[in-house]
Amino acid sequence: MTLDKVPVGAKVKVININNSPIKHRLLGIGIVPNSLIEVVRGSPLGDPRVYRVFNKLISLRNSEASSIEVEFLNDYIPLSLASDGEYIISAFSAGQQFLKKISLLGLNVNSNISIKNGEIYFKGKKINLGHGMKEKIFLRRL
C-alpha cells in the first residue's frame, strides 16, 4: 500500500521509497524505511495532506505520497481494511458527532468486535457501519 491511500488518523511504517524526483527530499525530511508516519489531516479536496514524521508536521501532495510504500502497524488498523478475526478497538479518529453515534451503538475504546465474512459483530449482534465510519475506527488484533 502507498501512503496516499492511508486513511486520516492511521499510523503506518515506511517500507520503501520508490524512485521519484523527490526521493532525496523525502529522505532529507526523515521519511526513511522503518520510520513511523501518522496521517494527520487532509485538505477539503483531499490533496495535499498533512503527515506527522518524527514529531514534525509536513505536507505532501498525493502524487508525492504515492511513491512511499507503507504498512499498517499491527496495533492500529482501520476497520475498513481489517480482515476476518477478533479485534479490540484502540482509537477513534473523528469529532463529537461521530463519537455520539458510535456510543449509541455501545462501541468505545477497548470494546471487542469480531469480523466474520466481512460482517461486523459486537456482543454477538451484527452492526452496520458505512465505509466512512469504518475508516475512523482503529483496531488491534486480539
Kindly identify the CATH topology of the largest domain.
SH3 type barrels
For the record, give the distance between the C-alpha atoms at the N and C termini, rounded to a whole number: 23 Å
Helix count, per DSSP? 4
CATH level-4 homologous superfamily of the largest domain: Ferrous iron transport protein A (FeoA)
Task: Write out key terms for the chains shown.
142 residues, 11 strands, SH3 type barrels, six-stranded antiparallel sheet, elongated
Task: Summarize, please.
It contains 4 helices and 11 strands, in the order βαβββαβββαβββαβ. It is 17% helix and 39% strand.
Task: Write structural notes for this entry.
The protein folds into two domains: 3-72, SH3 type barrels (Roll), CATH 2.30.30.90; 77-141, Ferrous iron transport protein A (FeoA) (SH3 type barrels, Roll), CATH 2.30.30.90. Helix content is 17%, strand content 39%. The longest helix is centred in the last third of the chain and has 10 residues, at 96-105. It is built from four helices and eleven strands, in the order βαβββαβββαβββαβ. The strands form two sheets. A six-stranded antiparallel β-sheet has the order 6-11-7-8-9-10, with no helix packed on it. A five-stranded antiparallel β-sheet has the order 4-3-2-1-5. The chain has helices at residues 23-28, 62-65, 96-105, 131-134; strands at residues 11-17, 36-42, 49-53, 56-60, 68-72, 77-78, 85-92, 112-116, 119-122, 125-127, 137-141. It is α+β, with helices and mostly antiparallel strands.
